[in-house]
Amino acid sequence: VDLDTAKQELEEFIPHVRNISDSSIRKMAGRDLARFKQFKKQGIAVKFGRFSQKENNQIRKNVEEFLLITGIDSAEKLLFTSRYPEDKETINRLKAEHLFCEKLSEGIPRPWRLIYYRARKMFDPNNYKGRYTKEEKEKLKKYHALHGNDWKKISEMMSRSNLSVAMKYSEIKSAVNYGPWSKEETQKLMHAVEEVIRKRMETEDANSLSSSEKSHRDLSIDREKLYQKLPWTEIEAKVGTRYWRQCKQKWTTILTNKMTKGQQLYRGTKGLQAKINLIKRLNEMKVDDANDINWEELSNTIGDVPRTYVQAKFYKLKVSCVPFWQKKTFSEIIDYLFQETLPELEEKL
């Protein structure tokens, strides 16, 4: 399929396809177009956003079946082949012979690239390794001085995921403020967030609104877009004096104050009740992986708050209440909170 035809046909399934690079479109034409058409015949729409538990299970099933067919002995070898230079040639040959792309995406109505990234996140043993030690931070600075932004190489040297080392480096690369935010910093943050959201909305509207509609249109967006998938390293650069995680936390605080009209939702009796509700709901969900939690749905256990606020409160809860939480699975953490912490909180209440 030529490039223009590919763009035209893919646009039916991916409205923002014109903003994607030509090389990515060519790959999508090969890997995704036939699958998308098949799903359309079955009345299934192409999905984006959070992966469901059902989709995660399908990825696990697809990976396990591919390992059985090929005899490759681990998901890490399959998805992180470059970590095994001595087996690389054999693994790549098996992947080509047994149609790895088709097998991995079987039964999942999403672009192949997103399925592949999700599988790598699920099966990477270097994910979720806890806080960086002082020694690791020094190593990271040293490796960055040697290899620049080659996060793939640095991640292999540090046994951490690509995203983890990139984000951590952005956090430690320069001196930043750690005290209370000044008025000027807060204004910079709000302008930076507004700028990236406006830019995103303009891109999304480029094909859907006429020029006269655009000129008369105010910025009106779904509330979720105020805090979901914002480019925090870009915002960090615009603010200049804070690293990305501080920017994200401060923005969550600003939004929470706006949404709750300044009420203290997590203090005193209300705070105890919120923790109790949060633990009960997490237990009812019977989820084995934090990635499968719908934090949006959970936010009403505390009040009208952003999902990141709830995630932050859950993090504080597990760190302060669950001994050796780093060594426990997600379901073990929830079991501990439900069996040990919940009765104490209820008694306190």
Describe this structure in words.
- 63% of the residues lie in helices and 0% in strands.
- Helix 9 runs antiparallel to helix 10 (151-158) and helix 12 (183-205) packs across helix 14.
- The longest helix has 23 residues, at 183-205.
- With 349 residues, it is mainly α.
- The termini are far apart.
- It has helices at 3-11, 22-31, 33-41, 53-70, 75-79, 88-97, 100-104, 112-123, 134-147, 151-158, 162-172, 183-205, 211-215, 232-239, 244-259, 268-285, 295-298, 307-321, 330-348.
- The radius of gyration is 23 Å and the shape is globular.
- The protein has four domains: 3-123, no CATH class; 134-173, Arc Repressor Mutant, subunit A; 183-205 and 222-260; 268-348, no CATH class.
- It contains 19 helices and no strands.
Number of domains: 4
SS class = mainly alpha
Report the C-alpha radius of gyration, rounded: 23 Å
Instruction: Please give the number of β-strands.
Output: 0
Order of helices and strands: HHHHHHHHHHHHHHHHHHH
Largest sheet: none
| Residue share in β-strands | under 5%
- Which spans of ≥5 residues are poorly predicted at pLDDT below 50? none
Helical coverage, percent range: 55-70%
State the helix count. Answer: 19
**End-to-end Cα distance:** 65 Å
Average residue pLDDT: 81
Task: Using the alpha-carbon principal axes, give the shape.
Answer: globular
